[in-house]
User: Which sequence fits this backbone?
């Protein structure tokens, strides 16, 4: 008797702690078992407390979990098929979600990462966790990146236009003349080591061993890398597509900039330019306001609610800049359409028995912790 095939969609995301006491075990997942200094744990607990995390679970859950699960629910309603969500670093873990899919009789899944820009530090690590969990239990079609999805740029533009229009109106009224407030697009920074070409792994290095302390220079090992990571280019291309959509309402190339945010707090060089450096440059150029839009995040979480809404806003105020930002995509109907459309693109059929070990990224060190 033949078993009927049953397909589903699986969305992968980063994950976030539920309560403040989860921070140390959560960071252990992020770093692949490498210990974090206590002052880093405490600093991150402080940041999460500032955005509402407490010692007891929030009724609605932490923002990233709440919004990601909602996105999965809305996608399932739109496509009228099963949609599962798995997190790499916290509940619901990818492995637990896979176990549920197997129990539900799923035999095939199309998988999409809710990190549109492809990187070894996100997509690559999600893929590894997925393959370790699935094995040969069901087949997988994996979509590595979808940063060029037109509807994604449209979703961001829909959020950005009202925020920019309001900032321009307020600044123009204060100046007594028309002013186009600069837009600063941002994406999460990654360590420089992860985007370098022709990098060779050093498996004999103590820092390459599971659970080893972070090396003093903070350089992380992502395995044998034969070509540059596409992440920084894809981030900037996403920003360019959004800017092009706002050209019709007056945005020019002189009105927008790009920077990487949330560099790690455990050392090592991270890609830039940084947001603080860019804010300084804008203030030095005579600007009085700036509108931020993160283009690599699909919902509210600590890198937006703390890094931008609290930290960057405070830094901007000290420079005489009024900082505001576009609303996050969260439950945007256009975002859900974008995800649905991205799921239709060409995918890679993964085979864990044939995947070359050199293409599997190693777990990140503590330098991958940004917030």
Assistant:
């Amino acid at each position: 008797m033949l078993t009927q095939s049953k397909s589903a969609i699986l969305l992968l995301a980063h994950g976030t702690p539920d309560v403040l006491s989860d921070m140390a075990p959560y960071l252990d997942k992020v770093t692949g078992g490498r210990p974090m200094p206590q002052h880093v744990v405490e600093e991150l607990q402080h940041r999460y407390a500032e955005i509402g995390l407490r010692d007891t679970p929030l009724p609605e859950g932490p923002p990233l979990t709440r919004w990601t699960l909602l996105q999965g629910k809305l996608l399932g309603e739109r496509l009228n098929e099963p949609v599962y969500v798995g997190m790499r670093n916290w509940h619901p873990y990818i492995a637990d979600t896979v176990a549920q899919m197997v129990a539900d009789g799923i035999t095939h899944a199309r998988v999409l990462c809710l990190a549109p820009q492809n990187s070894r530090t996100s997509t690559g690590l999600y893929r590894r966790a997925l393959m370790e969990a699935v094995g040969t239990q069901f087949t997988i079609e994996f979509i590595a990146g979808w940063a060029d999805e037109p509807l994604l740029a449209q979703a961001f533009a829909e959020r950005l236009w009202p925020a920019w229009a309001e900032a321009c109106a307020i600044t123009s009224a204060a100046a007594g003349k028309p002013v186009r407030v600069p837009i600063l697009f941002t994406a999460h920074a990654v360590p420089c080591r992860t985007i370098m070409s022709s990098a060779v792994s050093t498996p004999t290095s103590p820092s390459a061993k599971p659970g080893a302390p972070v090396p003093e220079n903070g350089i992380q090992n992502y395995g044998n890398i034969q070509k540059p990571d596409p992440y920084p280019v894809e981030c900037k291309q996403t920003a360019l597509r959004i800017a092009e959509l706002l050209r019709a309402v007056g945005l020019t190339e002189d009105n927008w900039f790009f920077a990487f945010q949330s560099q790690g707090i455990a050392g090592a060089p991270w890609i830039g330019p940084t947001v603080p450096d860019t804010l300084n440059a804008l203030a030095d150029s005579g600007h009085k306001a700036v509108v931020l839009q993160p283009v690599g995040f699909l919902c509210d979480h600590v890198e937006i609610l703390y890094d931008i809404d609290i930290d960057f806003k405070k830094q901007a105020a000290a420079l005489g800049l009024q900082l505001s930002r576009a609303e996050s995509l969260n439950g945007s109907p256009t975002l859900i359409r974008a995800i649905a459309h991205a799921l239709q693109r060409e995918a890679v059929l993964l085979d864990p028995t044939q995947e070359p070990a050199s293409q599997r990224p190693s777990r990140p060190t503590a330098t991958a912790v940004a917030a």
